[in-house]
TrEMBL record:
Matching Gene3D superfamilies: Nucleotide-binding domain of ferredoxin-NADP reductase (FNR) module, Translation factors
Residues reported to bind [2Fe-2S] cluster: 223, 226, 238
Pfam family, one: NAD_binding_1
PANTHER family found in the cross-reference section: DIHYDROOROTATE DEHYDROGENASE B (NAD(+)), ELECTRON TRANSFER SUBUNIT, DIHYDROOROTATE DEHYDROGENASE B (NAD(+)), ELECTRON TRANSFER SUBUNIT-RELATED
NCBIfam families tied to this protein: PRK06222.1
Sequence positions that bind FAD: 62-64, 69-70
All copies of domain FAD-binding FR-type, residue ranges: 1-95
Protein name, entry field: Fad/nad-binding oxidoreductase, putative
GO biological process, one term: pyrimidine nucleotide biosynthetic process
Organism annotation: Heliobacterium modesticaldum (strain ATCC 51547 / Ice1)
Cofactor(s) the record lists: [2Fe-2S] cluster; FAD
Length: 284
């Protein structure tokens, strides 16, 4: 069992857990993820390692409650434990020292996985410009943590309730106008956001890394659930990624694949709500 040593509610639907997982914490690197199962009936949920503390033996996960699995997870409290944690999984981010500025862009819950990448880039001696964005002020988190590992931080909200009004892509365009020597962009967030960022940087000719979050099952490259098309080649996000060249990813296909189980997921969510209201549906 893997105890939850701290829980923080970052917004109505976004929760943070510090999990005691010393073996994962000992090896974790920026860009990697883990797969957890809350209990023996629970789904496998892949989550990015948003932070780690090797001395305490903890890893930090930040997750958005979107379906039945993450909603059940969000009901756990500090002192509870999850059944399995498998990781660290995936290829770590390629961190190097660049001659000019680099940008990291985190959208919504993507702010969590972009943080360790920003920190690693800063530690490697880069000039890091961070852009974080959310639909509104309530959904923003880790502004101070991001500021601490960046040379400049631009905060955007879609509705203008905080920071600059507008999308992260608008902020990135302005950033490029002021920094034509921009060397690289990392973008993590919802797939439509990562697609928009890749479409923005393609004409600029700035190499862009995105972190794909397809459906996953085994996390070992065996089941094929997480396949993505990159430059016409099939790749498995769990073992070849999750980071890929954003200019080569087939986002249209990736978005279609993400929607494959939408009806089943809706049914699972409805059953969960039914249980919460005290109903019996015989689904367990
Ligand atoms: C490598 C990796 C790292 C991830 N890191 C994080 C993270 O740090 N924080 C976080 O909140 N989420 C992260 N995710 C996404 C997270 O795993 C899913 O949100 C979760 O598995 C959904 O489970 P569920 O049972 O709650 O929802 P489901 O019932 O499975 O799905 C509900 C709805 O969400 C959509 N959906 C399902 N899976 C995904 C997905 N992978 N991405 C986007 N939409 C999806 C479905 O199409 C459906 O509409 C990551 C995914 C991957 C592959
Ligand atoms: S999750 Fe099964 S191949 Fe990647």
């Amino acid at each position: 069992m893997y105890p939850i040593v701290r829980k923080e509610i970052l917004s109505a639907s976004v929760k943070l857990f510090d999990l005691k997982a010393p073996l994962v914490a000992a090896k974790a690197k920026a860009g990697q993820f883990f797969i957890l199962r809350a209990d023996e009936k629970g789904e496998r949920i892949p989550l990015t390692i948003a932070d780690f503390d090797r001395e305490q033996g903890t890893i930090t996960a930040i997750f958005q409650e979107i379906g039945a699995g993450t909603r059940l997870l969000g009901r756990l409290e500090a002192g509870d434990a999850v059944l399995d944690v498998v990781g660290p999984l995936g290829v770590p981010s390629e961190i190097e020292r660049f001659d000019g500025p680099v940008a990291v862009v985190g959208g919504g819950v993507g702010i969590a996985p972009i943080y360790p990448i920003a920190r690693a880039l800063k530690e490697a001696g880069n000039r890091v410009i961070a852009i974080i964005g959310a639909r509104n002020k309530e959904l923003l988190f880790w502004e101070e943590k991001m500021a601490a590992v960046s040379d400049a931080l631009i905060v955007c909200t879609d509705d203008g309730s905080y920071g600059r009004k507008g999308f992260v892509t608008d902020a990135l365009k302005d950033l490029y106008e002021a920094n034509k020597d921009l060397q690289r962009v990392w973008a993590i967030g919802p797939m439509p956001m990562m697609r928009a960022i890749a479409n923005t940087t393609r004409p600029m000719g700035v190499p862009t890394i995105v972190s794909m979050n397809p459906l996953m099952l085994d996390g070992t490259g065996m089941c094929g659930a997480c396949r993505v098309l990159v430059g016409g080649e099939t790749k498995f996000a769990c073992v070849d990624g999750p980071e890929f060249d954003g200019h080569l990813v087939d986002f249209d296909l990736a978005l279609k694949r993400l929607a494959i189980y939408r009806d089943e997921e809706k049914r699972a969510l409805a059953a969960l709500e039914h249980h919460r209201e005290g109903g019996r549906c015989g689904c367990h």
